[in-house]
Amino acid sequence: MGVHLSLAEKLKAIEHLSHEELKARWRKDHGVNPPKGVRRGILMRSAAWHLQAKSRGGLSRSAKTFVRQSIAQLRSEGPDSEDSDDRSGIVRRVRVRKAVTPGSRLIREWNGKTYAVDATDEGFLFEGQVFRSLSAVARHITGARWSGPRFFGL
Q: What residues contact residue 82 under an 8 Å CB cut-off, 6+ apart?
């Protein structure tokens, strides 16, 4: 993109970039390859945000502090967090899972009926049947595809 274009013109030009050009911008902006299967819209939004941040200064110092504190809190709460990039202090990925340990009972009211699911070593026991995942239980209850952890409020 040309150096002498206004921010609005640069943002408009993003719409005309190919998928490969957008992926190259992602690599330049983030320092890593984009996630596999990432959609064009996400690549465009990322490129637009970085253009605006470069032009207008990005996040405020207080916003950056808030993000770092939030990440630190998430890391201290979950066993599955991943490391930050020590060179920049930027966290590349944080994944926090709330594990359902065997012996736990999950209760959910849905459509006026209360459902109870017991976590076992083999999976999730629901109405005498063992399911491999909470999502399978949620699908059995609702007849639709649900995220099991989301359905049970985890």
A: 91, 92, 93, 94, 95
pLDDT digits (tens), the chain, 154 positions: 556 788 888 889 999 999 999 999 999 988 899 888 888 989 999 998 888 888 888 778 888 888 888 888 887 765 544 544 444 555 555 455 567 788 888 888 888 889 899 988 888 899 999 998 889 988 999 888 888 888 888 7
How far lies 61's CA from each of 48, 50, 64, 139, in Å? 21, 16, 5, 44
Give the global pTM.
0.44
Structure tokens that stand for 131 in this block: 């399911």
How far apart (Å, rounded) are the C-alpha atoms in residues 48 and 154?
33
